[in-house]
Predict the 3D structure of the following.
Amino acid sequence: MAADDELGPLGGIKIGGGRASDRPPIVAEYSRPRHRRSGGWFSKLVLAAILIAAGGFFLAPWFALQAVRSAAESRDSQALDDLVDYNAVRAGLSAQMSGAPAPAPIDPWQHPLQAMRQALQASPMVSAPRVESYLTPDALNAELNGRAPGQPVSAHPWPNLRYWGFDRCRLAVVDPADPRRETLLTFQRRGWYTWKLSQIRLAGS
């Protein structure tokens, strides 16, 4: 039998049960840091970008109206040339003054030849003094705010949506001095976010 000093003071038995050599080593377990998935954030950013782009596309005609108003108010002829399809507007105004129905603007993206023919047919109206008097910056500023040409503009009424399509949008502006008078403004899309004023339907006509 082995001596006590060979077995230790307790005969090799560790308090708590079992020999010290028989017990498995204790290994400290460390939890690995958890990383959040970046895919969820990326999807949200993509969705937000799509919603912003769609909202900008839908609201582009409203922005175009504000741009035309600003250009007319400041008498910026260069900006008005970029924002107004003068040939189409002339054709519509001439038809209203003659009592004939105004021709609908033709989309040059879908029907370029027909749009060119319509523009050429409207070109003789350029010299009509009565029509031109409605196309000066001051007259446009009045019409875009629901007023008749020559009347002062003291307010910029919020436009009401009458029609919205992929290529055409129609907004109504009520005369602040007379709610019964309503001017219809038609904008036509010329690019993804570019719209031009193509028709003015004067109040009472």
